[in-house]
Design brief:
By secondary structure, this protein is an alpha+beta fold. It folds into four domains: 21-135, no CATH class; 158-246, Pdz3 Domain (Roll), CATH 2.30.42; 250-473 and 610-619, 2-enoyl-CoA Hydratase, Chain A, domain 1 (Alpha-Beta Complex), CATH 3.90.226; 479-597, no CATH class. Helix content is 43%, strand content 18%. A hairpin with a 7-residue loop joins strand 13 (319-324) and strand 14. Helix 2 (25-52) runs parallel beside helix 5 (121-133), helix 3 runs parallel beside helix 4 and helix 18 runs antiparallel to helix 19 (586-597). The protein is globular, with a radius of gyration of 29 Å.
């Protein structure tokens, strides 16, 4: 073939493509690719639900729920949908398989594209997906690409970036602390530094999302940041190589007193068990002979991590949790494989209404076997297990595949048949008084949800874990405190304070944490200064406002001066805790905060006699035939 013969056909192809682009066909090709992605995504979601959800779902219900979602946010609100492919009122029960459902949805999709060209069809497809999830359980969810990536990071236990904890203060990225041994820490970036430029462009005015997008990145990549440091006249430029940054799930582990260790887990990620064991070894070296395990406000996470942790408190071959589903592949029995390290360690587990899923697995096994004392308030009641599936556009869906049962056969999941909104607000409908809530719950538990612990004590399913010892909510809340937190005044004040006095404060307290807890006090001048900051932000003192009845008007809070003086210790304590975070780290923050405010923890450490009584009761119960009981799933929706 001659060069001319080779070139001529290719020139013709290039010419045709150029003309097509000029006439707008390139845009048509792009739109068709977008349509293919949207339709493929719809198919994927529906197939995943039908093949994996723990309850059997009718295809027709999925289709019509998706169609209602698809048209809910249409740009053209005036368009008459009746007798069109978008008509949601003509339910056709013959749509009973995936093929028919997809055919009908594609027809509706194409019709909307033709009659309303301005529609964002990717957004409408997302609405259709959300429509399908509206008829599922509350924990099956659609995750948009960015949210999916963020949650993957949360549970993987690490991300890649420069390694700083930050906040947006007065439109500027302000470093709260550099993560220990991370890239920024190694370069000397410190608390109080303001990041004003990223890669040569201003970062002033950035949102939290923009900060994450620009500072996080692939390991080994370089980001240039310019920092303004208090009391340093010239901005400082840093070239930071991004690296793996661990996300710690142990908020605090320290000795409450000579023999009692305290360990707080904020969620169960891929690294939690390793963190737990490292913390426990450290506590043992400090003389720990009993443990308070704090799972308050721990929403769960990886089931296997919760299972491994609770397994350290039991002998080999102890059943911990069972998952049940209509799909055999999601049915599993989890039991310990070896002797746990801490089978004889006296144990108190703290829980509350924010403790869910993995936290309830831990608390449920401990309670079922009378292994320790569960103290606090009734837990959330999430006994559903999710599996995440990726979609064609990098989004994902999280599908509930099974329910879990505690060793006694308890179903912890609270009812959700009244819909997602009612389910979400159930926490707010509980009695404020924890004892009254417990009594009301027990009075309404049917016999089918009553179970026995190893020693024969009665326990209950169907609404979370009811603690063995009820502890009331902390009473340190106040309107003045809430106003301070809402306006972020505590962080701003401490940041300003550290800008002015940071060197002196570090020199005085930096290596004297124990003395800081007992001896640090705010001067009257600093309290007055903070009070002025609050009034500048909209706190208004008025003798005409009744004590204990503050009034909110717009962005302002009207309070009686008596209220402020009564709650002053709360404000000072919060500022002291925040100062400890910026002087040291998050663990020190919790040590200070717990010492000042945590009434529940202080009450819990008075219960060791009950722990011993429980142990004696178990030893005398004569129960030796306690086994995992398979219980049929109770359909609750």
């Amino acid at each position: 073939m001659t060069f001319k013969r080779f070139l001529a056909p290719n020139l013709i192809v290039i010419l045709i493509l150029s003309i097509a682009w000029y006439l707008g066909y390139e845009r048509v090709f792009k739109e068709e690719r977008t349509d293919q992605v949207n339709l493929q995504k719809y198919i994927q979601v529906q197939r995943v639900i039908l093949d994996n959800h723990f309850n059997e779902i009718a295809v027709s219900d999925l289709y019509y729920s998706s169609l209602k979602g698809f048209v809910r946010n249409m740009e053209n609100k005036e368009f008459d949908l009746k007798d069109t492919p978008l008509d949601t009122t003509q339910a056709d029960q013959t749509i009973d398989n995936l093929r028919l459902s997809v055919q009908h949805f594609e027809r509706a999709y194409r019709f909307l594209a033709s009659v309303s060209p301005e529609e964002d069809l990717a957004a409408r497809t997302d609405d259709a997906v959300l429509g399908m999830f509206s008829i599922l359980d509350p924990h099956s969810n659609y995750l948009e690409p960015e949210r999916s990536e963020r949650e993957q990071e949360q549970f993987s236990g690490k991300f890649q970036g420069i390694g700083v904890q930050f906040d947006i203060l007065q439109d500027t990225i302000t470093v709260i602390s550099a993560i220990s041994n991370g890239p920024s820490d190694k370069l000397g970036i410190q608390s109080g530094d303001r990041i004003v430029e990223i890669d040569g462009k201003t970062s002033v005015g950035f949102t939290q999302t923009q900060v994450l997008r620009t500072l996080r990145g692939e390991k080994g990549s370089i980001v240039e940041v310019t920092i303004v440091r208090p009391k340093v006249a010239t901005p400082i430029k840093f070239s930071i190589e991004r690296d793996d940054i661990p996300l710690y799930t142990i908020d605090a582990s320290y000795m409450l007193e000579n023999q009692t260790g305290y360990l707080k887990i904020n969620n169960f990620a891929s690294t939690t068990y390793d963190e737990f064991m490292e913390a426990m070894i450290s506590l043992e070296e400090q003389g720990m002979e009993k443990l308070v395990l704090d799972l308050r406000n721990n929403p769960g996470g990886y089931l296997i991590q919760a299972f491994r942790i609770v397994g350290e408190f039991f002998p080999a071959n102890t059943p911990i949790v069972r998952t049940e589903s209509r799909h055999a592949r999601f049915v599993s029995d989890y039991q310990t494989q070896r002797m746990g390290v801490y089978t004889e360690l006296p144990l108190i587990v703290l829980v509350d209404e924010g403790s869910a899923s993995g936290s309830e697995i831990v608390a449920g096994a401990i309670q079922d076997f009378d292994r320790g004392l569960i103290a606090g308030r009734r837990t959330y009641g999430k006994g559903l297990v999710q599996v995440e599936y990726s979609l064609v556009d990098e989004s994902s869906v999280r599908i509930t595949t099974s329910k879990y049962l505690t060793p006694s056969g308890r179903l912890i999941q609270k009812p959700f048949f009244e819909g997602r909104e009612s389910y979400a607000y159930e926490l707010y409908q509980r009695e404020t008084d924890a004892i009254t809530d417990a009594q009301s719950f027990v009075q309404n538990v049917p016999d089918s949800l009553k179970y026995k612990t190893k020693s024969g004590r009665e326990i209950y399913g169907g609404g979370g874990i009811l603690p063995d010892h009820i502890l009331q909510r902390d009473t340190t809340r106040s309107f003045v405190f809430g106003f301070m937190r809402q306006k972020n005044l505590n962080t701003n004040f401490i940041r300003s304070y550290m800008d002015r006095y940071g060197d002196e404060v570090r020199a005085e307290w930096g290596d004297r944490f124990d003395e800081y807890i007992t001896d640090f006090k705010w001067s009257e001048a600093r309290v007055a200064e903070f009070k002025n900051k609050m009034t500048d932000a909209g706190l208004i003192f008025s003798d005409t406002v009744a004590v204990n009845n503050p009034v909110v008007v717009g962005d302002s809070l009207y309070v009686n001066p008596i209220d402020f003086e009564r709650d002053r210790w709360i404000l000072e304590g919060s500022l002291k805790a925040e100062l400890s975070r910026q002087l040291w780290d998050t663990q020190r923050y919790f040590e200070v905060f717990n010492e000042i405010f945590d009434v529940t923890l202080k009450d819990a450490v008075t219960l060791w006699n009950e722990v011993e009584d429980l142990k004696v009761y178990v030893e005398n119960s004569g129960k030796s035939d306690f086994e995992l009981k398979a219980s049929p799933i109770r359909n609750q929706n």
